[in-house]
Write a structure and sequence with these properties.
Order of helices and strands: EEEEEEEEEEEE
Structural class: mainly beta
Strand content: over 45%
Number of strands: 12
Strand order of the largest sheet: 1-2-5-6-9-10-11-12
Oligomer: single chain
Largest sheet: 8 strands, antiparallel
Length: 183
């Protein structure tokens, strides 16, 4: 495989906004994919040529900071175009199909509050687009969104020991989704 990538990282607006941008393409020849031949029995199949094209954008912005509290907002956005370029499996032509298990779009956003005495909290939102589940792209997972939260306290015990006590609240909106997919 060959990977080509160009990117930029920096700070803007008096150092309050940090950003990272990457544009990439990876070309792979002779990719091996698993093919199920019976229950719990798989073999490797040569999927020919595949291409992985994408854009990843990350931002982190310091919304507010004083001697008592700091509030930061962070976002990650990925656009993925992963495809079989040349994949014929016996009589099935998968050329041009999306690679299974990868959404075209994923997005994460975090809002973080940290105090100078150790109390912190975070609110996290995630979006995952639908994903193909099969090489022939006849079945897709459903897109879904998640809302999670954390509240905690961080502390130091001496000069070289620190700790955290926290509670996490995952899937606050009780969304039904598949956390793991069998491709």
């Amino acid at each position: 495989g060959w990977n080509f990538e160009i990117g930029s990282r920096g700070k803007l607006f008096q150092q309050k906004l940090k950003y990272a941008l990457s544009i990439y393409q990876m070309n792979v020849k002779n990719l091996l994919v698993a093919k199920r031949i019976s229950n719990d029995q798989f073999i490797g199949v040569n999927a020919g040529k595949t291409s992985y094209k994408g854009i990843e954008i990350e931002t982190q912005y310091a919304l507010f900071k004083n001697n008592f509290i700091e509030i930061k907002h962070q976002n990650n956005l990925s656009f993925n175009d992963y495809k079989f370029e040349d994949f014929i499996d016996f009589d099935e032509n998968h050329s041009g199909n999306q690679l299974p298990g990868v959404p075209k779009i994923s997005f994460n956003s975090n809002l973080n509050f940290e105090t100078n005495f150790g109390l912190y909290t975070a609110l996290s939102y995630s979006y995952f687009g639908k994903m193909p589940l099969r090489d022939d792209n006849t079945a897709f997972s459903k897109k879904y969104q998640l809302l999670n939260s954390t509240i905690g306290y961080q502390f130091n015990l001496g000069k070289s020991l620190s700790g955290r006590l926290f509670m996490k609240f995952n899937n606050i909106l009780n969304v039904k989704y598949a956390s793991m997919l069998l491709i």
